Amino acid sequence: MKLIYEGKAKKIYDDFKTVKGQPTVIMEFKDSLTAFNAQKKGQFSQKGQLNLKFSQKVFEMLSEKGVAHHVVEVLDQNRIRVLKLKMLPVEVVVRNKTAGSLAQRLGFAEGIQLKKPLVEFYLKNDTLQDPLLTENQIETLEIMTFDEIKAAQVLALKINLELLQFFNHVGVDLIDFKIEMGKDESSKLYLADEITPDSCRLWDQKTQEKLDKDVFRRDLGDVGEAYKKIAQKIGIEI
Fold first, then answer.
1. Regarding beta strands 40-43 and 32-35, do their DSSP bridges make them parallel or antiparallel, or are they unpaired?
2. How many CB atoms lie within 10 A of CB 66?
């Protein structure tokens, strides 16, 4: 296998295989944990296994609801085979309540329910710390086309609707989440990357306990235990 990319939480390998005529790559989940664009680093045992199982469980649910995603098969505890896509150059964030950078930018308290879900786009650029982009900037600077912007918004809102119901069923509020998307050779749009406690804000509805990476970001306790707790809530055991 050839290592073609290593990010903060995953490695991507190419073993030059295709599935039903479509090229694929292997995604490996690491045990590492980062925050603030990798300025803060950590790890805990079995994080990669937990995130793989968590993401796969959520992706399977979304697939049943008609959301196309990139996962082809699970290979082992830390690795999955995924479609090799042309990734959109943005991260798509959907917010249901105020938290994180939105609350900081606007001076709002965290946890305020938004009138409707807010979709934001951030340029994928670690050097620039993933700057927020307006739709007009994206189109005018030819980062994405108008049709790509609208398709990404529609897919993001569909995913949000299904995730809200999924987590509400186990007594968890989905505050916000970040996703990535990509296109195959026929320009079909897929959900890609992952959906895990790394990429979502998840609060216990009764206690408001944070069950996501904010535990690590803000030194709120044992992040490994928080990840295990939210995993158990959705029926995953490590």
1. antiparallel
2. 8
Compute the distance between CA of residue 43 and CA of residue 198 in angstroms, rounded to an integer: 12
Using DSSP, state whether 68 is helix, strand or coil.
Answer: coil
Element (H, E) at 154: helix 146-168
Rounded to a whole number, what is the distance in angstroms from the first to the last CA of the chain?
Answer: 27
Is the CB of residue 72 less than 8 Å from the CB of residue 24? yes
| pLDDT score at 154 | 98
| Residue 237 confidence (pLDDT) | 82
Residue type, 151: A
CA distances 135 to 90, 98, 123, 191, 198, Å, are 11, 21, 11, 20, 26
What distance in Å separates the CA atoms of residue 190 and residue 180, rounded to the nearest whole number? 9
Phi, psi of 62 (to 5 degrees): -65, -35
Give pLDDT tens digits for 196-228: 999 999 999 999 999 999 999 999 999 999 999
Alpha carbon 44 to its chain's center: 19
Ranges of the chain with pLDDT below 70: none
- Reduce the DSSP state of residue 161 to 3 states and report it: helix
Residue type, 202: L
The span from the CA of 166 to the CA of 162, in Å, is 6
Average pLDDT, the chain: 97
Helices 47-64 and 223-233: crossing angle in degrees, nearest 10, is 30
φ and ψ at residue 178, rounded to 5 degrees = -120, 135
Residue where the block lists tokens 């890609």: 192
